[in-house]
Amino acid sequence: MDLSLYFDPVSVESLHVPDADQLTDRLLYNILMYNPSASLDIQEADIAIFGVPEVRNTYCNPSCSLAPDEIRRQFYQLYAWRKEVRIIDLGNLRLGNSVEDTYSAVSQVVEYLVENKVVPIILGGGNDLAFANYRAYELMERVANVVAIDACFDLGNENQPIRSDAYVNKMVLQQPNFLLNYANIGYQSYMNSPESVGMMESLFFETYRVGLMRRNLEEVEPVVRNADMVSLDISAVRRPDAPGCPHNSSNGFYGEEICQIAKYVGLSDKLSSFGIYEYDPTLDFNNQTSQLIAHILWYFVEGFIYRQNDGQFKNRADYRQFNISVTGALEEMVFFQSKKSGRWWVIVPMYQKDKEQVQHYYLPCSKRDYDLACEDKISDRWWRTYHKINH
Which end of the chain has the lower number of beta carbons within 10 A, N or C? Predict the structure, then answer.
C-alpha cells in the first residue's frame, strides 16, 4: 500500500507543543512520524496512529474534525514507557469525495495494518467510523468480536442512513456477515429506549450498564479480552471529567476508570484495532478532555507492552484446569486459569444440529464465573455465549 496516497503527515510545528525542544525524553521524540519521502517498512511498527477528521455523518458534533491534532498535542507531552514499543504516527487521513469513500479508505488502511500485525489506533472524527473499522474485517474475511464503550447502543434501524448514533444495525445487516459478537460496555438505561434494550437481548449481544461495571471494574477485562476491535465514544465518560463532548451526561465512567479500561483493552492479546471518537475541542475546558484522551492512549499502549500472549492455549502445562459439575449443564464445565497472568477462560461447547459436539470455544471469563459454578450456578456470560453460538 502506498501510504502517501492516503495520509497528510503530521507537522510537529503545527501542533504547537510547548517547550518542544525540552521534551527529548517524552513521546514527541519517541514516536516515528511518517514521512512520504523516506522509506518505511510498516512491519517494523507495533502500533500505528492515524487521525480521521470525518464528520459528514456525525450527529450534532461537526467540530470533532479538530480532535486528532488536539489529542496529539497532549499525548506527545507525556513521558515514554519504561519498555520499548515501536509506534508510528501516519498523520491524518485525506477525506474522500464522499463519506463512503472515507469509510473505504479507513477499511483499507486498517486491513493493511492488521494484516501486517500492526495495531491501528484511529483518532476520530465521528463514532460512525467504527463501522468503517469493522468493514476492514470483512475485507479480510475474518469474523470479528466488536466491543463498544458507549453510553448509547447506536443501533439505528434498517431504513435509517448511517450516522454516528445509528450504525450498529448496519453491522448486523451486512451480508455476508462477519460479526460474531457485539458487546456494549457502559450504557445508561435512560439514554436508550426499551425497544433497543430488547433488541440487544434478542440478538444475544452483551450489554453492561455503567453502574454495574463501576461496582466491579475487573468484570470489564474478560469482555474486552474477547474483542477484535474496540471503539470508545468519549460520551461514555461523565461530563465533569470530559466536557469536550456534546453527547455525554453527568453520569458515566470517571477518568481513572476509563484509563483502567483502556489498559485492559491494550492487554488483550486478541485485540487488533482501537478507535476513539466524538471529542469536540471547541467544547473542552482547559484541555481537560484532550488530556484525558492522551492518558487513555498512554494506558492502552502500556497494556499493549505487557501483553501476556496466553490466550492461544499452545501448552496446557501453562494453565490450571478445573472441572466442575453444575446442575443444568449438559456436561462438566471446564475452566482454565493461566499460570502466567492469572486470567480465566471457560469452555463453551459448540454443537452441530444433530447435537454432536464438534469443537470447544474458549470464552474469556472472570473468577466470578468460576465461583458461581462452584455454587452450582451458570453465569449469564456462559449462557449468552452458548445460545449465540448454538442458535
Answer: C
